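User: Before I run my own analysis I want an independent prediction to cross-check against. Here's the chain; please return only the structure tokens and, at the end, one sentence I can use as a sanity check.
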Amino acid sequence: MTARRLVISGRVQGVGYRDWMMSRARKLGLDGWVRNRVDGTVEAVVDGDEASLQELLRLCRRGPPLAQVTHIEEDLSEPPDEPGFHRRPTF
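Assistant: Structure tokens:
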């Protein structure tokens, strides 16, 4: 498994993006976390099998109905410290 760090830009705050992402990640059996950032982006670390990671990335490019994703920055990351998928406080 290879964890990824995502920074999602666009209209992604105030549209339910974090809850939407938590739901999708949990359904795909992924571990990690998601949080808003003070710069208006959403940051996440996700870990799991490659097929599930790619499916979540595909879904994240669109996001929930009110979101407008303009860019997703993707980097390799250390795996999350705990199992499951969680929401973290804004950073």
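Sanity check: DSSP finds two helices and five strands in the chain.
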